[in-house]
Amino acid sequence: MATAYVLINCELGSEESIISQLKAINGVKEVHGTFGAYDILAKIESPTVEALREIITWKIRKIEKIRSTLTLMGIEGQS
């Protein structure tokens, strides 16, 4: 199982809408609003790294009002 954590910056006031949209995406396991440099943290799991990349590139990054993302890939066997 491939795992990634996506840190998201979004437009001011759009956090709740984006969190709702993220929760509806297959593969998104957890979503949290955060304080600090990023607005939202999402945990994504998928059977393969390729499928994970597809979710991040074609679903998450296409959500309107997301300004930027930073993806942290989990290392297999170090969980």
TrEMBL record:
UniProt cross-references to InterPro entries, sorted A to Z: Dimeric_a/b-barrel, HTH-Siroheme_Decarb, Tscrpt_reg_AsnC/Lrp_C
Protein name from the UniProt record: AsnC family transcriptional regulator
Highest taxon listed in the record's lineage: Archaea
Domain Transcription regulator AsnC/Lrp ligand binding: 6-73
Any Pfam family hit: AsnC_trans_reg
